[in-house]
Amino acid sequence: MHAHERPSTLEPGRTYTCLMNDTPLYDAVVQRAQGCWATVTVVRPHPGRHEAQYTPGQSFDIKVQYYRFVERP
Fold it and tell me: Which is nearest to 40 in space by CA: 48, 4, 72?
């Protein structure tokens, strides 16, 4: 059964480091989180092989179940 709930730690307006398979991809502000999806705006891409795929200010929707989010201070 799929609950269609967003993670309790993911809050709009807050900045998170977005990780996939424990690899940090970028820091982003969550604009909206609804159900399984969130709209994020990239603040800073992290160095590495995925760095060129993300630019500051870029906004897009992501399926939250594929990522882990660590809140930035």
Answer: 72
Residue type, 64: V
* pTM of the predicted model as reported, rounded to 2 decimal places: 0.84
In Å, how far are 1, 2, 3, 13, 37 from 16, measured between CA atoms?
Answer: 28, 24, 23, 10, 15
Residues paired with residue 68 on neighbouring β-strands, in sequence order: 19
Which helix (H) or strand (E) segment holds residue 68: the answer is: strand 68-71
Collect all residues with Cβ–Cβ distance below 8 Å to 53 and sequence separation of at least 6. Answer: 45
Q: In what order do the strands lie in the sheet with 23-34?
A: 59-63, 37-45, 23-34, 15-20, 68-71
pLDDT in tens, 24-40: 999 999 999 988 999 99
* Distance separating the N- and C-terminal Cα atoms of the chain: 34
